[in-house]
Amino acid sequence: MGYKLISTWKMSYRKMSEVKEMLKRKYSLQEIIEAVIMAVEDNPDFQSVGYGGLPNSEGIVELDAGYMDGDSLAFGAISGVRNIKNPILVASSLIKGKTNNYLTARGAEKYAKEKGFKSRRMLTEKAREKYQNRVKENSHDTICVIGRDLNGSMAVGVSTSGLFMKHPGRVGDSPIIGSGYYCDSQIGGAAATGIGEDIMRGCLSAAIVNYMRQGLNAQKACQEALFSYLKRVNNEPKAISLIALDKDGNYGACSTLPDFPFVILDENNQARLMVYRGQEKRIIEADENWINSYQGD
Ligand code: GLY
User: For a designed S-S bond to 70, which of 92, 185, 204, 266 qualifies (C-beta 3.0 to 4.6 A apart)?
Assistant: First the structure.
């Protein structure tokens, strides 16, 4: 079975297109997941992740990230950090400890500084203007990447600046293991993007992995996790999108949105932009028309 990778949103497409080259240069799975996420974190055009992320109600950008290694089940996470250039690198470094795996706010920043992670003023002029005008658009959120290497080792990483205008200190699903991400190489991995409060109520990433544990493939597990949760909450309107990859290399995606774009690597290690169509409950490949008409990240 070939190398497998799935990531959220169109914003991940450009770096996913470079994975083929990274594989030739023998990047590890962790390095590839980090590279895809860092490319999104570093791009100020994407206003829901990293540099250029939209700020909280006090005009401060607070970032969350998580990483999980599916072989050891080790995880690392940070939340509410300010002025850290690449939150994913700080989160993934925390998988090494037996304790102190999830650090928050000033403690996480102190750790990042001690370990020499780069800092950066994360509020861009564009984000500051939006904050001043309270303009909300392009509010798609978390970059999530799940991978499986040629040895069957799996991992997942996520990074976000969370909700625009959130209360200072508000943390969503992304750094919360089982909600924003989960991965077990013996079963599969899953990750979520959308309104964190909705996702946390259903522990949706853990739910998907549990459905895969029961034998469902990645697609069926995403559908079962989302639709049974929506039923449980009386079909209240939600903004939730999910991706998964099972140990056999099958991809899955599901969403409450009309269109949820995500990216996969095909059998030739080429990136392909796919779309889960919420109304039709099916996945299509994005064509030029779709790409030209899509307004989001
Ligand atoms: N899903 C990201 C957040 O709600 O913060």
Answer: 185
